[in-house]
Amino acid sequence: MAFAGVDFYQLDTLLSEEERAVRDTVRAWVDEHLMPIIGDCYVEGKFPKQLIPGLAELGMFGANLPEEYGCAGLNNVAYGLIMQELERGDSGIRSFASVQGGLVMYPIYAFGSEEQKKHWLPRLAAGKEIGCFGLTEPDFGSNPGGMITTAKETKEGWILNGTKMWITNGSQATVSVIWAKTGEIKDAKSIRGFIVPTNTKGYAAKDQKGKLSLRASDTSEIHLEDVHLPKDAILPKSGGLKSPLMCLTQARYGISWGAIGAAMACYDEAVTYAKTRVMFDKPIGATQIQQVRLADMLTEITKAQFITLQLGRLKDAGTMTPQQVSLAKRNNVSMACDCAREARRLLGANGILAEYHSMRHMANLESVYTYEGTHDMHSLILGQEITGLAAF
Amino acid sequence: MADTFAFVEARGGAIRKVAFEAITAARRVADASGGGEVHALAIGAPGLRAEMEQLGRFGADRVTVVEHAGLERYSPEVFAATAVAAIKAGGYRAAFFAASALGRDLTPRVAAGLGVGMASDVTAVDLSGDALLLKHPVYTGKAIATLRLVGSPAVVSLRPGAMAASEAPRAVRIETAVPALDPGAAHVVVTATEVSAAAKLDLGEAPVIVSGGRGLRAAENFKLVEDLADAFGNAAVGATRAVTDDGWRPSADQIGQTGRLVSPTLYVAVGISGAVQHLAGMRTSKVIVAINRDKDAPIFKLADYGIVGDLFEIVPRLTDAIRKIRAEG
Amino acid sequence: MKIAVCLKRVPDTDMRFAVAADGKSLDLSGLKFDMSDFDGYAVEVALRLNEQQGPGEVTVVGLGPDAVQETLRKALSMGADRGVHLAAAEVPFDGLAIAQALAAELAGQGYDLILFGRVATDTGNGMVGPMTAELLQLPCVTAISHLDIKDGRGTAHRELEGARETVSFPLPAVLTIDEGIARPRLPSLKGIMAAKKKPVESRPAALGPIRLTVDKLELPPERAGGRIVGEGPDAVPELVRLLREEAKVI
């Protein structure tokens, strides 16, 4: 049976025909190609890279970028719906698409030269190149401005040195957008972006092992040791910490939608289970405790849907602020974590099995809660927005 | 008082059971209208005429047999033109066909050729004043519609097996006629009829699924399940997760929470206890049959029909019974 | 080739199904609509034929209220070239009335093939395709599971009860498509955007007279469940009898 979504307030009526069509295409793709294999991928700790051509063929990478670069040219609500549907399948798959589109294609589009855009974007959209985004370092997570990766200018070009960590797609990537300081270590304004083909000498990536979350996604460490790059490797329009932060706003926007997808998956599974699982001669859905769980989930999902749809409309109107994205990311991921945990509990012992989805989402969402600005960092961003006073 | 028409479907020179059902329906409407005659039409290769006597048993008053060496196989154009001509000539109140593979092809052409209304895949027939009231499953069987069909003749195709043929013996007159169109002039030609088990059906598409679980004890015993599926002719083979995990069947055959979600017309669960994971994948099946040795197995709570006992004895018996029914057609 | 595919927009009743207060129609509240399943296969067949056999044009034709245009655009987003909307306040249950409107639209347009799904998933009638063929006086093969087109002739397979027919026919022709022939593609995101720019003409449907209507719509009897027919192989005849006479599935 196909996934029907969760739409208690007829939000579909606020979507355009093509927004719904995009959502339905991705939903059907996830049902057909991802759901049958994701449980096994997760248990085996394997990213299902065989799905990349299919994702690309439907146009899911950088779908909100213009058609002239081989992209679908969708609006941001449609882009958000793609993220929602992919994460309904698995946060790892959504992360893959988020990174490719929001963190690799977007900075090339926003900060790249015309030559860079023409070269890289169609290849990335077609899945012929796989990208990753190197910002976070072992000692600089929430504080990326403190990074110590450097890019030294030479007569021929640039030499990069440093280490990046928690890099999604790191070991799969054929091209990496690396952020490094071109000036003094203290000078966050000197942060610039570089396009680094991963087969460049001195570039090495290795997977981080032992993850208990996002197991169907590759997370890697990147080592840069005297990586020589030509002059035109720099993203000419990047400048200062705000450039990578703009990328993060893109990715966080997608995560806000994605988290709803994960929550919907858990809610859907919980409802089906509650109606069919019989205990003490009646479906467990006929008990008060499970009904409260389900009512809470539906309420929180519905609220998140409203916030996020309006966020998308603001983004399409060009008036969305990063703080609004922080609120949505913070609320939605936290909400999805709660839904996943409650759904897992409702499923009883079956809920710990990989053939059900809630526990996988529950474990995944702990990463989503933590990455792209932790829940707490977003609290502080909002706190600063409210009071005008920085607490970090 | 009005006469009615019934089309006699034959294959390989033998009358198919659905023909008797069409005659029974035609008899019923003729009687309900105050007692008219039932006229039947049979089309096929020479030799068909010898079969026609038995039609009187179900209430046919007259049979017109159209024999032609070029009509060993179905010819859509010749059959349609011949039926249209016969129905026009007879001035019937209603004309009944089978909603079989042949009938689903033929009947709409005949109705369009006559320029009259038609109801298809009908499960019950009633005459009410100037209309026929007909039951017909809609929304893939989720509901039953009562249809009102006005005009004469009313053309109806009957779901095979939905209305059993009943005996109402008559002295049947057998006449012969020629096809309304020369079979040699037909554009659409059936060049081969291959009698075989249907090509391997997809689980999502098969009207019948026969599924096996751990109760089969070993991979090689899936032969029993395959044989039963083969007997149905329109069945696919499914399996539980336990079975695919053990490599008895390919994982693509798995039905359940993580496998395929199916809702065939008929689901036969063989040696499946009914873990909630499996039930999630097949509970929307229209009719569920369970065969299991444990009478307390959860599958029996869901199944419409269950047999408790040794599947190794029960399944071969069921396979034989289904084969026999299908051979009778 | 110049191919027309006739599409029907139908409610998706997998999730919820209820009869409306009038007792004879479907309660549409909360229902989503989509292209009838078999029609998706017909679109796929048309697209593949033209992909394999060189350039052509695929026209999709839908009859009904304005919302039908959304279903036409789904086919356009899969790759069809243009849409024709035959406007009618509602789609009648009567197949011949629909076939007459379609025949009026399709006649004399030079289509090499006119494709239909084998049956619509709402009415379950399966009659509009062959009726349209008869009205247009075109060769027709129904419920095909395989198709080859070569030198102006086609070869198709159709499944019978326990047998398979191979059918040869000349073009132009009307075909109705069974599932399994070619899995319909998903509309790509670019296809969805491109579909907005493809032409959809709308004109009134010339429906024929209505002779078949719905008097009543009711749910089938509830599933009893949990019925044990008997024990051991001796219960088989009774099971078979129930499957034939009560459940009516064999």
What integer value in Å does the Rg of chain C equal? 20 Å
How many structural units, i.e. domains of chain C? 2
SSE succession of chain C = EEEHEHEHEHEEEEHEEEH
Number of strand elements of chain C:
13
The topology string of helices and strands of chain A comes to HHHHHEEEEEEEHEEHHHH
The proportion of strand residues of chain C reads 25-35%
CATH class category label of the largest domain in chain C: Alpha Beta
Distance from N terminus to C terminus of chain C (CA atoms, Å) equals: 41 Å
Q: Quickly count the domains of chain A.
A: 3
List how many beta strands of chain A DSSP finds. 9
Overall spatial form of chain A:
globular
CATH architecture of the largest domain in chain C: 3-Layer(aba) Sandwich
Helix content of chain C: 25-40%
Q: Rg of chain A from C-alpha positions? A: 21 Å
Q: Roughly what fraction of the amino acids of chain A lie in strands?
A: 5-15%
- What class do helices, strands and sheet pairing of chain C give? alpha/beta
Helix content of chain A: 40-55%
Characterize the overall form of chain C. globular
Any key phrases for this structure?
heterotrimer; A: 392 residues; alpha+beta; Butyryl-Coa Dehydrogenase, subunit A, domain 1; Butyryl-CoA Dehydrogenase, subunit A, domain 2; Butyryl-CoA Dehydrogenase, subunit A, domain 3; 3 domains; three-stranded mixed beta sheet; 10 helices; C: 250 residues; alpha/beta; Rossmann fold; 6 helices; 26% helix; globular
Question: How would you characterize this protein structure?
Answer:
The complex is a heterotrimer of chains A (392), B (329) and C (250). Chain A folds into three domains: 11-125, Orthogonal Bundle (Butyryl-Coa Dehydrogenase, subunit A, domain 1); 131-233, Beta Barrel (Butyryl-CoA Dehydrogenase, subunit A, domain 2), CATH 2.40.110; 242-387, Butyryl-CoA Dehydrogenase, subunit A, domain 3, CATH 1.20.140. Chain A contains ten helices and nine strands. Chain A has helices spanning 17-44, 52-58, 76-89, 91-111, 114-125, 242-276, 288-317, 322-346, 358-370, 375-387, and strands at residues 131-134, 150-153, 157-168, 175-181, 191-197, 203-207, 219-230, 278-279, 282-283. In chain A, the strands form three sheets. Chain A has a four-stranded antiparallel sheet with strand order 2-3-7-6, covered by helices on one side. The longest helix of chain A has 35 residues, at 242-276. In chain B, the strands form four sheets. Chain B has a seven-stranded parallel sheet with strand order 7-11-6-1-4-5-12, sandwiched between helices. Chain C has two domains: 2-204, Rossmann fold (3-Layer(aba) Sandwich), CATH 3.40.50; 220-250, no CATH class. Chain C has six helices and 13 strands. In chain C, strand 8 and strand 9 form a beta hairpin. Chain C has helices spanning 37-52, 68-78, 95-106, 128-136, 189-195, 236-246, and strands spanning 2-7, 9-12, 32-35, 57-64, 82-87, 113-117, 140-150, 153-160, 163-170, 173-177, 200-204, 212-218, 228-231. In chain C, helix 2 crosses helix 5 (189-195) and helix 3 crosses helix 4. Chains in contact: A-B, A-C, B-C. At the A-B interface, helix 1 and helix 6 of A face helix 6 of B.
